[in-house]
Fold this sequence. Notes:
Elements: H1 4-46, H2 49-59, H3 66-73, H4 81-101, H5 107-114, H6 117-137, H7 144-171
Amino acid sequence: MVDVTEISAVLAAAGVLVGVVYYILEIKHQTTIRKTDLIIKLYSMIQSHEYQDDLWKVMSSQFEDYQDYVKKYGSMLSESPMHKAFFSVLAPYEMVGTLLYRKHIDIGFVYDVFGSRGSKMLYEKLKPIILGTRREFDEPGIFVGFEYLHSELLRKEPQLRKTWGKYLSQSS
């Protein structure tokens, strides 16, 4: 026969188990909220007028290669407005790529919010500057997060595009 103390011990153990499961689920939920909040903040940042002005300046710059860029806009160590725009524009992409590499955010969510076209165009435009800066300062890690983001988006874009495929086919 089961007595009251055995029943209360089982109920207490079940209560602890339910509490632990709830706590684990709550932690997962809070982590998702933090990741979402981070992406929303980054997205808001790249929608600002200041960022858009810097992006326009960078994307409309004309240069053939790194040497030509330095000749027109000065050394990367100078206080050129172009360099400030360059670093301002690349900073969010560098952060997203680094967070993606460290698995703090999900590539699918990044793709859903930012897409891939903008980062592709920016990377292709600035690749000679990034590579030249790495060589000049003998620092292979300069903007490696942005490069990682670019390569991951290229590699996974066909799969990522399918996530919206059903919706897009219905909306046409």
